[in-house]
Amino acid sequence: MDVHPRTIGRGTGSTPINRFERLSVVDDWEHLEHDADEALSDRRVKTEVYIDATKSLIVANDSPDIPFGFSINPYRGCEHGCAYCYARPYHEYLGMNAGLDFETKILAKTNAAAILREELNKPSWTGEQVLAISGVTDCYQPLERSLRITRQLIEVLAEAQQAFGTITKNALMTRDIDLLAPLAARNLYQANISITTLDPDLARELEPRTSPPAKRFDAIRQFANAGIPVRVMVAPIIPGLNDIEIPAILQAAAEAGARTASYTLLRLPFAVKEIFLGWLAEHRPSALSRVEGHIRATRGGELSSPKFGERMHGTGEYAAQIKQTLAVFTKKYGLDREMPNYDTSVFRPPLNASGQGRLF
Known about the structure:
The chain is built from twelve helices and twelve strands. It has helices spanning 34-40, 100-104, 112-120, 144-147, 149-160, 177-185, 200-206, 213-225, 246-256, 272-283, 288-298, 317-332, and strands spanning 2-3, 14-15, 48-51, 59-60, 70-72, 75-76, 105-108, 131-133, 164-168, 189-195, 230-237, 260-265. Helix 9 (246-256) links the parallel strand 11 and strand 12. Helix 3 (112-120) runs parallel beside helix 5 (149-160). The protein starts with a strand and ends in a 28-residue tail after the last helix.
């Protein structure tokens, strides 16, 4: 694994070897003279945007661990740069690495809205299915501010009266309240926002390009005031690092107006283990052995488990304690309420790219 010196504003500077590639290029920083090393010490790696001319958009999911059956992801890769992100290895399928490439080389599905129109017009799509925007990478990552792909998708979904939800950790979601509030009033939309910590310094290091915690709670408040049901996701819970914050996060979410809460436990598949443990070694070295030990205690001695029923919440005594803590404090703060049922009865196919509706 190659590590770039002090990559500024990114979750990692590492470029782990792609597990699908036979050859790799490794930068050798050690041969540099001291003054050259100093010149490189304040690296700022710019985001590169590539057009993903996708021909399909809606992805079916049959995992029993995932609460939605169909999802849409407007982007591949994510500028948020969260050091723990389980989606990082997906970039390896594109011939890139799960480290710095994942957060600096973003593929944008600029034709997503047109593709969505076509797919919602297929006879096989009845509208009884609920869609999730995101699920792999964040639909409100910083690029969305200028590209507006997510907003275009919401406009199509609103036209079709298609039930859906969004998953994000970015307060940019508040930009679209004008579209989302009327949909929520008709039980066509719900919001999910993840909170990892209340500590702005930890958030800045762990999730460098996400919204600060205070902004996320303000987003919850704005959505709740607009009548939009919000689920707060304490995600991921990192044993030995942020699990002590669970009660305070839930209390703050309840005070902001969240309706219910859920959680996921950290898992470190493939290259994510190198990236996250490297992050710990750099930013929280005194906690490295403790956190790694607790993660293994919840994963049967490993750092990740792909087994259905285990991968989201872990196993063992420590995982059971976390689950119990969530149960106690969600009840204490009134976050154990049910979300409204989606109304899937009003779906109508939108006009397709040619301006025509479905004939049959």
